[in-house]
Amino acid sequence: MNKAKVKGCGTENADEKRKTFSIDDILTVAAATYCESVGKTAGDYDLVSVRCRTSTPFRSSYPANDYRGHADGAISARSRPPDIMEELARCVPKGTEKVADYRENIAMNNYMVFQYATGTALVPRK
């Protein structure tokens, strides 16, 4: 069985992070299910774990009316945390066909909102 490599957002240089992987190629299905659907096996790919974390100030950094949002319940763009899927896309290694097993979580305390995202990059073996 292949051992998955681990790739975190903090390890790439700034130029690589600017080239964003398409979020349309980030899937919630299991890697094995995706491989089967395209007629391949997991052995045809290098499996690379990708993960990302963002943090956004909660409440105290924004005026009260900006934090609470608008009459329709929407939060203003200024107080909205970054899109975690787009942040993960910046961490995907070059040559990746798809990212499978995508998951995201959110945690918060009185000061910060933390978003976490993980997935498995499927990089075709040469």
Structure characterization notes:
The protein is of the alpha+beta class and 126 residues long. The chain has one domain: Translation Initiation Factor IF3, CATH 3.30.110. It is built from 4 helices and 4 strands, in the order βααβααββ. Strands 1-2-4-3 form a 4-stranded mixed sheet. The protein is elongated and about 50 Å long. The N terminus is likely disordered.
CATH topology: Translation Initiation Factor IF3
Low-pLDDT ranges:
1-7, 10-18, 65-77
Number of strands: 4
- Output the radius of gyration: 17 Å
Helix and strand element order: EHHEHHEE
Which outline best applies?
elongated
Q: Round the mean pLDDT to the nearest integer and report it.
A: 76
Number of domains: 1
Distance between the termini: 18 Å
Helix content: 10-25%
What would you say the CATH architecture is? 2-Layer Sandwich
Which CATH C-level class is it? Alpha Beta
Task: Count every helix, treating DSSP H or I runs of 4 or more residues as helices.
Answer: 4
What attributes characterize this protein structure?
Translation Initiation Factor IF3; 4 helices; 4-stranded mixed sheet; alpha+beta; 4 strands; disordered N terminus; 126 residues
Structural topology:
Blueprint: E1 5-8, H1 14-18, H2 31-37, E2 45-57, H3 64-68, H4 84-89, E3 98-108, E4 112-124
Parallel strand pairs: 1-2
Antiparallel strand pairs: 2-4, 3-4
Summarize the structure.
With 126 residues, this protein is of the alpha+beta class.
